[in-house]
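JOB MANIFEST
job_type = single_chain_structure
chain_count = 1
residues = 109
[input]
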Amino acid sequence: MGRRNRIVRTWLAVALLGWWAVQARAYVPVWASNETLTRHVVEHAPAKPRALLNYGVMVAASGRVDDGEHLMHAAVAASYGAHVPRFERVLTAEAAATNLAAVAALRAR
């Protein structure tokens, strides 16, 4: 009985490792860059203000200033959700104000 249990456990371990490898490979495109990872977070948790803000900053920094600004405003709006703690609302508002000021400075150039 002992040898048979070892064989079964070994095959189960190999199958589990194979499944994990397939799952990890499916996420390789998500991990391709900070922007793709943050986009993935926003797509799966669109009500998270910090994710929206971070993605907005990345998008604006990549040259898509209008889209980035829109995401930063969406982050401020999302920070007023019932599920968002007050400290995160304050931090998001402060960071968004700083980043939106930077966007305004870019537009003034």
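[summary]
The radius of gyration is 21 Å.
The first helix runs from residue 2 to 26.
exit_status = 0
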